[in-house]
Design goal:
single chain, 87 residues, mainly alpha
Length: 87
């Protein structure tokens, strides 16, 4: 796995002279509120090949209709005081 991660970093260095994965990751963390969650997650997985691979396999499974859908069994309940019934 570290060979794949190293390869990705080397290719990024070829395309972006002076590229530094640590600096890139820190910059992502600093600007995470400025981008959509999915985009942030995808960019952050560049530092972890297994996470990157898993994310794309999950994406493909979802597009092919093979993903696990738990939405029918989940209920969202607010925990704020104003949403609780008065007694």
């Amino acid at each position: 796995i570290s060979l794949v991660e190293k390869y990705i970093e080397e290719k990024l260095l070829d395309w972006i002279p002076g590229f530094n994965m640590t600096t890139f990751t820190m910059s992502l963390q600093q600007h995470k509120d400025e981008m959509a969650g999915d985009i942030f997650d995808m960019l952050l997985t560049f530092t972890d090949f297994l996470a990157f691979k898993e994310m794309f396999l999950d994406y493909r499974a979802e597009k092919e209709g093979r993903s696990l859908d738990l939405s029918s069994g989940l209920v969202v309940t607010s925990l704020t005081k104003s949403s609780l019934p008065s007694s």
